Amino acid sequence: MVMPSKRNDLPRFQRWSKSYETSWLQPVFFEPSMRTVLEVIASYVTTQPESVLDIGCGTGRLLRSLHERWPEAELLGVDPTFGMIEKARELSSAIKFEVSFAEALPVPDASIEVAMSTFSFHHWSDQQAGLREIVRVLKPQGYFFLADAVQPGWLARLQPRSHMQRPEGVRELFQQAGLHVLHQQLTNTKWALVTAGRKELAAD
């Protein structure tokens, strides 16, 4: 669920990989938000997809839940932190995991039906480049589900260059990349925003 940027996050997340599964943030923040993400995905993806990609997968918690729901789907998780990927591989042999940044996905063009990213977007070095990569790997009319911490208005004024986006900023980035925004909602924690998008045919 976490994806460090190329700047200075990698050592911190490498250390966190050892205790990420048991972090107090899991029941308080990540798990409630993940339930919302799964509900939004289920409202749009009503049949089992062939291929699913999780960008910034961390230790693979979301993919493990999806494997229970879609046991025949080909699931791939990518994260730039080796420790997170190592732990993810230990926890599930049924899912493929690779070390990778969002801006350079190890996936062929138009090969993924459903992509997602949870709580890594504000860590990406180049959000536009990452979204363009997602559009590249999505099949026509493929879905992308993004969940990330939402930036309050007062923080936007204090940190105008923050990578944390407001809802309108996410919509604009989606549209610029070639993703049609289908849905946005806050999770029940009110600190995270879920955005559902679909690859537009014009972007093929």
From TrEMBL:
InterPro entries: Methyltransf_11 (IPR013216), SAM-dependent_MTases_sf (IPR029063). Pfam families: Methyltransf_11. Transmembrane segments: none annotated. Keywords: Methyltransferase, Transferase. GO terms for biological process: methylation. It comes from the Bacteria. One of its GO terms (molecular function) is S-adenosylmethionine-dependent methyltransferase activity. SUPFAM superfamilies: S-adenosyl-L-methionine-dependent methyltransferases. Signal peptide: none annotated. Residues 53-146 form the Methyltransferase type domain. This is Class I SAM-dependent methyltransferase. It comes from Ktedonosporobacter rubrisoli.
